[in-house]
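Troubleshooting: if your tokenizer reports a length mismatch, compare your output against this known-good record of 357 residues.
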Amino acid sequence: MANFDDVILAAKSLSRGNVEVKMIDDVAGVVYPSFMFKMPKLKNSELYTGGAETTHPAWIVDGVEKTEFLFSCYINSVINGKALSLPFSDPKTGMNFDQAKAYAEACGVGYHLPTIAESAAIALWCRKNNLMPRGNNNYGKDHSAPYEKGTATYLSAGTTCRTATGSGPISWNHNGQPFGIADLNGNVYEWQAGYRTVDGEIQIIPDNNAAVTGTNQLATSTLWKAIMPDGSLVTPGTAGTLKWDHLVAAVAGGGFRLNTAIENVGADGVYGATSFAGLTAKAGVNIPEILKKLAIMPVDAGDHGGDSIYMDNHGERLGFRGGLWINTSSAGVFYLDGGFPRSLAGDGVGFRSAFVI
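Known-good structure output:
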């Protein structure tokens, strides 16, 4: 194997300094490289038209502005309990939210499960720069460009499902370059930190505070905050907070909207679905800027890649970004599935790690 100094130099050179190779020690004393993409600090106005001239929350941790955060170039593998961002690997799947968080944080201080703020910043950057990535959203290939394929790593009944990380063409990278963040569109669901709903009430951990290693994100954590229509953050359960509400009596796959009350509650497992671009609020309900910054609501009435958003307003539900190998046009950087509990695990459920300090 090449000297790791050579690997680091090559990654920095070929990516023009945009990729940092972090060295991770496993419990057996073996050192592994982990490839991370640098996301330098940006203002909201640099991420979407009409955004405020203030720093996007992805770069604000415990009130301190950070110059950058690092985001895994690849859906993670796990070796001896630690998360690694490695190319041409089978994505690690089959872990619930808390297990994925533990794998990411096992790498040390600064490492964490990617947050809703970080993923939103990347999604908004892609849209702003007309670089919406394609990916494995149709059994190993992209639905809109079926000649684009990844290398199969997991098949079901002879049909490609998962593909090797970074094995697709450069159009599957967030920046359309050989060194970028791969597979944000499809392949496997990716757990997100810092976002959940409880009986439909939207709750977040403010700014990028969920990026702090060890942040309590259990169901009972007092760090979760609900959101008022004016954008202020309040204690969950406060009257008038923003919630997901079915448009009609709950029917699986039916539309939903932003509301300040639950008029149509779903039963357990009865989810709402709509295109992300088509998501709206009930007449008279204000959509605060914070929901646009976090890509929980569309920033304008334009296209958002055809991606979809899902919810279940019964019980605690956490979120996935990106979509699965079967989601075709619904998958993408704005895809947000908030229809499952934190206990969900399966062969289509994966994760990444991120880093900020």
